[in-house]
Amino acid sequence: MADRIPLVLLPGLLNDAALWRHQTDTLGDVADIIIPDLARFDDLGAAARTLLSELPDTFALAGLSMGGYVAQEIMRHAPERVVRLALLDTTARADTREQGERRRDYVALARQGDFKGVTDRLLPSLIHPRSLQNPDLVETLKTMTERVGRDAFIRQQTLIMNRPDSRRDLGSIHCPTLVLCGRQDALTPPELHAEMAAGIRRAALVVIEDSGHLAPLEQPHAVSAVLRYWLVAPIS
User: Fold this and answer.
1) What are the backbone dihedrals phi and psi of residue 78, each rounded to the nearest 5 degrees, phi first?
2) Section 34-49 average pLDDT
3) 5-232 belongs to which homologous superfamily?
4) Which residues, in sequence order, are bridge partners of residue 82?
5) Where are the domains of the chain?
6) SS3 180
7) What is the pLDDT of residue 115?
8) In this structure, how many other beta carbons lie within 10 angstroms of the beta carbon of residue 33?
9) Is 181 helix (H, G, I), strand (E, B) or coil?
10) pLDDT tens track for 83-133
11) Which residues are bridge partners to 207 per DSSP?
């Protein structure tokens, strides 16, 4: 279809294209989907500059968690190229001291060779309790993180730890923006998304029920439906 919009989907930490499988399968009639490899980056600015050199002149942009941090950096570099923005299960805030220390501990363990991807111990912080009872989802998540691997994990954590507080930049976002999260997102809870939506002039906040931090995997039909509306709604 000639009127399909390029749609760039940015995965989160230790995520790859499998995070967006349902969206890839169901939104192809309205979007030409591009899922960049974020496993190669350890610097936010370099990630934005490299992606902008590879992407179409204009595009819709959606990022989850770490992908949301990269999306916000792209908006700082080239807002005129983004016609629609979606920030999913993410935040505009920098890490707290405690969060930074936790990340550094994870990186230290990974450098020592103690890397197991997402373990059963970490799953409750990522997904809704009901999702823990879905063996296919759990297997998809574990396999994905193992596939991305230790070296990418270290690079990505470095990128995340060095990101700026982006709250002051929200007011400079002028394109139609979707802010979406799972109701039970324990890592970036709904109040952080309400904060982002309040700071963006043309933002709509959507909270997905019965979902944790990985809404596109946990509630794929709901997320795809919201993204479809976001993509096709007229720009006023």
Assistant:
1) -150, 65
2) 98
3) Alpha/Beta hydrolase fold, catalytic domain (3.40.50.1820)
4) 59
5) 5-232
6) strand
7) 82
8) 20
9) strand
10) 999 999 999 999 999 999 999 998 998 888 878 776 777 889 999 999 999
11) 181
Q: How far apart are CA 164 and CA 146, in angstroms?
A: 28
C-alpha distances in Å from residue 207, one per residue of 58, 142, 178, 186, 215: 27, 25, 11, 13, 10
**Cα four-point dihedral sign 231, 17, 26, 31:** positive
Tell me how crowded residue 229 is: count the other CB atoms within 10 A of its CB: 12
Helix or strand (DSSP H, E) at 104 = helix 97-111
Task: Please state, in angstroms and rounded to a whole number, the distance separating the CA atoms of residues 38 and 70.
Answer: 9
* 82 within 8 A of 230, measured Cβ to Cβ: no
Measure Cα distances from 215 to 140, 177, 196 in Å: 14, 17, 18
pLDDT digits (tens, 9 = 90+) for 52-89: 999 999 999 999 999 999 999 999 999 999 999 999 99
CB 176 within 8 A of CB 63: no
In one letter, which amino acid is 161?
A: M
Rounded-to-integer distance, Cα 85 and Cα 76, Å:
13
